[in-house]
Write a structure and sequence with these properties.
alpha+beta; 5-stranded antiparallel β-sheet; about 25% strand
């Protein structure tokens, strides 16, 4: 019996996935729950385990292809298996805890599978001569909808095909009135908008003024692609070069960063904190902490605790913007950037205000380990209210981080270094660190930002909490 391996749904708002790597080749034997392939989505990267033991018979979706959920991506020949639907690997949580299971369908030789429109790829237009960009996305049915929110709070629902068509023709989806169910924007709506645009005079490509604060997010998301495609080819391809298509994760990072810079007016507050006391506390407790709790004692929970205390005092820093409303969050969910060999991800430490020091360290370690092992779930990277990034881990003295939307602030932590400092007219050697707060000036004013930083600094320099 052949078992169909299906592209799993990694979350309620995720309708497609990209296969980034096959871990087995056709003809290879595989065990149930053994990693079969890796996928990348808008939210997470993950390893997908095999739903059955047997031999990988056929790979139907090659690496780099994006397909809707429920698409059959491979067949596994399971000798001796009973006819009928095989149970997904997720039915044995003790063996696959933390790992998404690949949904399966049973396919007997006598069964006639129903036609699958998604396996008939739509024609892909040839690349534009102006620029060789990242590898084109695989064509997907319009039914694979996603919802985006403009800066004025308007919700737009459209498929990847519709968004790509709009992007290629520089059409702002925020200006289109959807005629589909629930206001959904269809391909017909975009084609009508393109036709209307063709009837208007062509505007020469002069530099455009910055978009007002109420500009749709959809316009911000497509601005980068439009700018890059307008550059003359000879300004990009010259001399010796190698073209490397962006990975799905890198494309998502690029889109998110450009959107954030367009939507949020970034302002920066930089301060310096004396970490000498904390360095002594950590050094004195490190051996006992690691022996007692079987985990490393890092500096990150100290910074998280200081930020949690400051966010309690300054709730506008723990907020989001929706149109003309400021959403003050009741929970403090800290997004902590984790550098990966293949990109960057920001898993979220939920309800940090409720955790003691050990809970903070345990949660930070767990998220980092699962991020590097590709075991994060979609909910692990959602609902952050404030973010922290640590360029100091790689020796960076300081940085100017980009705000992680929909947050209104992010703290950058530099390297902790011993430096001469003047204390009471005397020179002393202290462990110092530069802290940078990037904040959204639509919500946070300079006075609030500097007071917030002062509170973080005071908490770090007067540490009294027992870490054991």
């Amino acid at each position: 019996m052949a078992v169909e391996v299906i592209m799993p749904q990694m979350g309620e708002s995720i309708f497609e996935g990209t296969i980034t790597k096959w871990l087995k080749k056709p003809g290879d034997a595989i065990e149930r729950d053994e990693p079969l392939f890796e996928i990348s989505t808008d939210k997470v990267d993950a390893e997908i385990p095999s739903p059955a033991a047997g031999v990988l018979k056929e790979i139907r979706v090659e690496e780099g292809k994006t397909v809707p959920i429920q698409t059959v991506v491979a067949l596994i020949e399971a000798p001796g298996a009973q006819s009928g639907a095989a149970k997904p690997a997720a039915t044995r949580p003790s063996e696959t805890a933390g790992r998404p299971a690949a949904p399966v369908k049973a396919q007997t030789p006598s069964s006639q599978p129903s036609p699958r429109p998604e396996q008939r790829p739509a024609p892909v237009p040839p690349p534009s001569p102006a620029l060789e960009g990242p590898a084109p996305e695989a064509a997907v049915p319009e039914e694979a909808d996603e919802e985006t929110v403009t800066s004025d709070g308007k919700r737009i629902r459209s498929s990847p095909l519709v968004r790509r068509l709009a992007r290629e023709n520089r059409i702002d989806l925020g200006t289109i009135r959807g005629t589909g169910a629930g206001g959904r924007i269809s391909k017909k709506d975009v084609l009508a908008a393109i036709s209307g645009a063709a009837d208007r005079p062509v505007v020469p490509p002069h530099p455009q003024p910055a978009a007002p604060s109420g500009a749709p997010v959809a316009e911000a998301a497509s601005a980068h692609a439009a700018l890059e495609s307008a550059l003359p080819r000879e300004r990009i391809y010259f001399g010796r070069y190698e073209v490397q298509p962006m990975s799905v994760m890198r494309q998502r990072i690029a889109e998110h960063m450009v959107l954030s810079k367009r939507v949020s007016p970034h302002v920066y507050s930089i301060d310096e904190a004396d970490m000498t006391r904390i360095a002594h506390v950590r050094e004195a407790a490190r051996a006992e902490f690691e022996q007692k709790h079987q985990m490393k004692l890092t500096f990150m929970p100290f910074f998280v605790r200081a930020c949690v205390d400051a966010l309690r005092d300054f709730p506008t820093v723990n907020a989001s913007v929706e149109g003309t409303n400021v959403v003050l969050h009741g929970e403090i969910n800290i997004g902590i950037a984790v550098a990966l060999d293949w990109g960057l991800i920001v898993p979220v430490l939920k309800n940090a205000e409720e955790k003691n020091f050990l809970g903070l360290q345990r949660g930070i370690n767990d998220l980092a380990e699962r991020a590097r092992a590709k075991k994060l779930k979609p909910e692990d990277v959602q609902e952050s209210t404030f973010s922290i990034t640590n360029p100091g881990t790689f020796g960076g003295l300081m940085g100017l981080p980009i705000i992680n939307q929909p947050n209104v602030a992010i703290l950058g932590i530099g390297a902790i270094q011993k430096r001469p400092v003047i204390i009471d007219d005397a020179i002393a050697i202290r462990s110092m660190v530069y802290l940078t707060l990037s904040y959204d000036h639509r919500v946070v004013d300079g006075a609030t930002a500097h007071q917030f930083m002062r509170r973080v600094k005071e908490r770090l320099e007067t540490w009294t909490e027992d870490v054991l």
